[in-house]
């Protein structure tokens, strides 16, 4: 396989990192995950936009200009001959330098990007999933897609150990988002989700759900809800690049609505499917 780096496309074996790499030692970097359906990037421009915004927020420069990066990613896809469902992982770090917290004197960021096959989560999308609720212990700048994912890792592990698909995070009883997803509540036909403040990552699929609601005439409110509201919801669902739109049918031990994926969730899933056609065919 091939990997895109700041030096251009290299073979997988050629990509190595020194111990003193700022991504490894400080989590000093940002990343993106992009979906491919049948070998086609989905919403690449939106993801690259967010990458440059995340980088700017930590005063990090991305090695390529946006158009050039998009062209290199297409080259990467072509060289790897990707025609199936896959994900692109891309990260940029502040580079390899002798360990010191403050920025290095030189601007020499590292970048790597690779593509891995990833099947759609069809069972979860159709049947729905169970989630748990846990405390959001992250820092105040969750709008930056940074490499510092320790709180997210611990929350997801707690979910896995409790037999759940995802952990819903709350700050003082207010639901922010999932450990790696955005969370939506449906009540009396209206879709609610946490506003896109510094306390959540504004998911690309989240912005698409907002757009679909507009197109479908579904009222959409960027208004936070509490952990207590979850049990009273008609429907709950989560979104992310790797999950698309997945119904939540149980929170801890509480069944949501009928215990089946709801009508609003299903119409948004259909809109997602349409929007990602023809790439997402099958
Ligand atoms: N919030 C967090 C904390 C995430 O890690 C993710 C997944 N990247 C999301 C939300 C969903 O974002 P997206 O729809 O862009 O994948």
TrEMBL record:
The keyword Ribosomal protein does not apply. Keywords: Aminotransferase, Pyridoxal phosphate, Transferase. SUPFAM superfamilies: D-aminoacid aminotransferase-like PLP-dependent enzymes. It holds the Pfam family Aminotran_4. It catalyses: D-alanine + 2-oxoglutarate = D-glutamate + pyruvate. Its cofactor is pyridoxal 5'-phosphate. GO terms for molecular function: D-alanine-2-oxoglutarate aminotransferase activity. CDD domains: D-AAT_like. InterPro entries: Aminotrans_IV (IPR001544), Aminotrans_IV_CS (IPR018300), Aminotransferase-like (IPR036038), BCAT-like_C (IPR043132), BCAT-like_N (IPR043131), Class-IV_PLP-Dep_Aminotrnsfr (IPR050571), D_amino_transT (IPR005784). Its EC number is 2.6.1.21. PROSITE patterns: AA_TRANSFER_CLASS_4 (PS00770). Acts on the D-isomers of alanine, leucine, aspartate, glutamate, aminobutyrate, norvaline and asparagine. The enzyme transfers an amino group from a substrate D-amino acid to the pyridoxal phosphate cofactor to form pyridoxamine and an alpha-keto acid in the first half-reaction. NCBIfam families: D_amino_aminoT. Belongs to the class-IV pyridoxal-phosphate-dependent aminotransferase family. Homodimer. This is D-alanine aminotransferase. It comes from Geobacillus icigianus.
């Amino acid at each position: 396989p091939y990997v895109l780096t700041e030096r251009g496309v290299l073979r997988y074996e050629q990509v190595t990192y020194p111990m003193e790499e700022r991504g490894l030692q400080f989590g000093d970097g940002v990343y993106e995950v992009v979906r491919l359906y049948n070998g086609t990037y989905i919403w690449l421009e939106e993801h690259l936009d967010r990458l440059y915004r995340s980088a700017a927020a930590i005063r990090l420069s991305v090695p390529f200009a946006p158009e050039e990066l998009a062209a290199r990613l297409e080259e990467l896809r072509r060289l790897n001959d990707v025609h199936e469902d896959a994900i692109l992982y891309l990260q940029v770090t502040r580079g390899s330098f002798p360990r010191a917290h403050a920025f290095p004197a030189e601007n020499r960021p590292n970048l790597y990007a690779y593509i891995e096959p990833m099947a759609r989560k069809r069972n979860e999308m159709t049947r729905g999933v169970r989630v748990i609720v846990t405390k959001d212990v992250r820092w105040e700048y969750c709008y930056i897609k940074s490499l510092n994912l320790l709180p997210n890792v611990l929350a997801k592990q707690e979910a896995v150990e409790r037999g759940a698909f995802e952990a819903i995070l709350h700050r003082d009883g207010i639901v922010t988002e999932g450990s790696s997803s955005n969370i939506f509540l449906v009540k009396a036909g209206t879709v609610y989700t946490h506003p896109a403040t510094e306390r959540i990552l504004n998911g690309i699929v989240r912005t698409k759900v907002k757009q679909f609601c507009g197109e479908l005439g579904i009222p959409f409110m960027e208004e936070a809800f509490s952990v207590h509201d979850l049990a009273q919801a008609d429907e709950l669902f989560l979104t992310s690049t790797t999950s698309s739109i997945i119904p939540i049918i149980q929170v801890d031990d509480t069944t949501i609505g009928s215990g089946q994926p709801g009508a609003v969730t299903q119409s948004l899933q259909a809109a997602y499917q349409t929007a990602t056609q023809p790439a997402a065919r099958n």
